[in-house]
Amino acid sequence: xxxxxxxxxxxxxGKGTQAKILAEDSxxxxxxxxxxxxxxxxxxxxxxxxxxxxxxxxxLVPDDLTICMIRERISRSDCRxxxxxxxxxxxxxxxAALDRMLFDFKSHVDAVPFITAPLEILVERASGRxxxxxxxxxYHEMYHPPRQSGVCDEDGSELYQRDDDKVETVRNRVNVYNxxxxxxxxxxxxxxxxxxxxxxxxVKQVTENLFLALRQFYR
Length: 219
Ligand code: ADP
Ligand code: AMP
Hints:
With 219 residues, the protein is an alpha/beta fold. The protein contains nine helices and eight strands. The strands form two sheets. Strands 2-3-1-4-8 form a five-stranded parallel beta sheet, sandwiched between helices. It has a three-stranded antiparallel beta sheet with strand order 6-5-7. The longest helix has 16 residues, at 203-218. It is globular, with a radius of gyration of 16 Å. The chain starts with a strand and ends with a helix. The mean pLDDT is 96. The structure holds adenosine-5'-diphosphate and adenosine monophosphate. The site of adenosine monophosphate has 17 residues, from helix 2 and helix 3. Residues 11, 33-34, 37, 54-55, 58-61, 66, 87-88, 90, 94, 164, 173 line the site of adenosine monophosphate (AMP).
C-alpha cells in the first residue's frame, strides 16, 4: 500500500525543508507544487507563463490547472509507493480532487503534519530564503547559510531570492493562506489524520518532533 503524506502550513514555515529531510529518510518522492510551477516557468511553458501572473501577486494558481499538474505528476511510476506532498492541496476543491485521485490509485491521504508559526517568523524566514536554481535546495541567510555565499552546497548551482519572497508579497500569501487553505485543517482533522507540529523551533527540533509524531501515528 502506498503512503501519501501532505505537509500543511503557511508559506515560509519550513514545509520544503522538512519535506526534503523526510523524503531522504523514507525514500518517498517529494512533490512540491511550487517547485513544479517554478520548473514550468524556467522552461517557459504555457502553464509556467500563466502561473507566473498569479505567483508574482502571491495569489493561488486556479484549481483546475493546479489539480491537472499534480494529477500528471503523481501518476508517474516513481509515486507508486507514495509521495510527500508539499504545497498541495491548498483549497478545499484541491483536497477533494486529491482524495478522488488517490481513490483511483486505491490509496488515500495517510497523515497530514500541520506546521505552524506566527506571521513575524514566516516573514523573517521567507525574506531570508535563498533557493538553488538547479534543484530547489533551500537555504536561509541566517539559519542555514551556504558554505559559500550565493552557491549551493549540494550541486554548486547559483542561489537566488524568489520574487514572491518580498515582504509585501509574503504578507499577501499569508492572507491568502488564512482565507483559502486554513479550512483544510478542519477537513483533515475530521479525517483523523492531522498532526500538529510547532514550527517555531529550529530545523533539527522540528524534524525530531515530526518523526516522533509520524512514528506514533503509524504505531
Ligand atoms: P516553505 O516550504 O514552508 O515555504 P521553506 O522550507 O522553504 O518553507 O523554509 C523557508 C525558509 O526558512 C528557508 O530559508 C529555510 O532555510 C528556513 N527555515 C525552514 N525551517 C526553519 C526552522 N525551523 N528554523 C529556521 N529557519 C527555517
Ligand atoms: P510555494 O513554493 O509553495 O510557496 O508556492 C509558490 C506559489 O506557487 C504560490 O504562492 C502560488 O502562487 C503557487 N502555488 C503553489 N502551489 C499551489 C497550489 N496548490 N494551488 C495554487 N497555487 C499554488
